[in-house]
Amino acid sequence: MNETLLHDLNEDNIFGKPEGSITAHILLYLFQILAFVSSNFPGRRYLFTGILLALFIESQRNLHFTNNLGLAQPFCIQWSFLLASLEKLILSGKEGPEAHFWRPDHGIQEALQYPPFGFAKIGWAVMLLLNQRGVGWNHQVKNVPVAPETTKSAFLKTRIWQLFKSFLMADLLFQLGIRIFYTNYATGLVGNLDTKHITLAYKNPLWNPVALFVFAATPYFALTAQYTLFSILSVLIGFGSPQDWPPMFNPIGTATTVRSFWGKYWHQVVRRGISTWSTTLVRACSVAQGTSASSYMQLWFGFLVSGYFHSTSHLILPAPINVTVYERTHGIFVFFVIQAAAITFEDFVKWLWSKKLRMGEEETRWRRTLGYLWVTGVLFWSVKYPALAYMRTRVGIESPFPVSVMKEWVKLIPVPAPEF
Question: Of 300, 313, 307, 305, which Cα lies nearest the Cα of 341?
Answer without folding.
Answer: 300
